[in-house]
Write a structure and sequence with these properties.
The chain is mainly α and about 120 residues long. The chain is built from 7 helices and no strands. InterPro entries: HPT_dom_sf, Sig_transdc_His_kin_Hpt_dom.
Length: about 120
C-alpha cells in the first residue's frame, strides 16, 4: 500500500502530515511504522481496564497528540473524545468510546503494516 492509499484505508491527512514532516515521504513512513510500538495505546488500554481515570485522560491525550502529528484522524478524534469524556466526569461512557477507538487503532495499525517504502 502506498501512502496515498493509506489516506483512503484509514482516514488520514496525508497532505498535512507531509507538510509537518518537511515533505519527506520516507520520514512520514518511518514514523508511521513506529506508531504501533508507541506505548500510549497500551497504557490507555491498561488504564481503561483498571478504571484509572486520571491515567485514561493522560494516555488518551498522549495518543491524541501522536495521532494528530501523524494525521491519523479517527485515532485522534477517538482519543480526544475519551479525554473530554473523562474531564466531564462521564466515566460510564469510557468503555464504549474505548471500543470504538480500539477498532480505529487496529485498522490504522493494519494499514500501516501494509505500507510500502
Amino acid at each position: 500500500m502506498k501512502l496515498e492509499e493509506l489516506e483512503q484505508a484509514v482516514p488520514m491527512d496525508v497532505r498535512g502530515t507531509l507538510s509537518r514532516f518537511g515533505g519527506s515521504r520516507a520520514l512520514v513512513v518511518r514514523f508511521l511504522r513506529k506508531f504501533p510500538q508507541d506505548g500510549a495505546y497500551s497504557a490507555l488500554a491498561a488504564a481503561v481496564e483498571r478504571q484509572d481515570w486520571p491515567e485514561v485522560e493522560r494516555s488518551a491525550h498522549t495518543l491524541k497528540g501522536v495521532a494528530a502529528n501523524l494525521g491519523l484522524e479517527r485515532v485522534r478524534t477517538g482519543s480526544d473524545a475519551l479525554v473530554q469524556t473523562v474531564r466531564r466526569g462521564e466515566t460510564e461512557a469510557v468503555s464504549a468510546l474505548f471500543r470504538g477507538l480500539q477498532a480505529d487503532y487496529e485498522a490504522a495499525c493494519g494499514a500501516i503494516a501494509a505500507l510500502e517504502e
